[in-house]
Amino acid sequence: MAESRRRLRSSTVVLGGMGVLAAALTSCGSDPDRRCVDRDSYDYVKGYKVVADKNCTSSSSSSSGSYGKSRLRGGDADWYYDADVSAGYADRGTFSRSEAVDRGGFGCSGSGSGGG
């Protein structure tokens, strides 16, 4: 009886440890959440208006460090990362993909700045 209890406890510790390890690895390896927004639509209360993803391209780099810029009719569309999204508007995010990744989770390198 004591042997089976000991075996159960050790397997629970192993499974729990694997869960923590998996969370640490996936928090850095995955891309940050992103929304295509109109940069010219900023509202102090609501944030940036979310537009269709087709307005942002998926280019991997540019000289300004911004990813996926495109011209939107009447505005400037760009990817906005790790934002709070509500009622078609995104706020408190960042236009820098690398900054969004640095903010990442448990196992990521970087100080995890809180602003955007």
What structural category characterises the helix and strand content?
Answer: alpha+beta
Please estimate the helix content.
25-40%
Q: Distance between termini?
A: 56 Å
Percentage of residues in strands:
25-35%
Count of helical stretches: 2
Global mean pLDDT: 72
Q: What is the topology, as strand order, of the major beta sheet?
A: 3-4-1-2-6-5
Low-pLDDT residue spans:
60-68, 110-116
Largest sheet: 6 strands, antiparallel
Strand segment count: 6
Question: What spatial form do the alpha-carbon principal axes imply?
Answer: elongated
Give Rg in angstroms.
20 Å
N-to-C SSE string, H for helix and E for strand: HEEEEEEH
Task: Give a short overview.
With 116 residues, the chain is an alpha+beta fold. It contains two helices and six strands, in the order H-E-E-E-E-E-E-H.
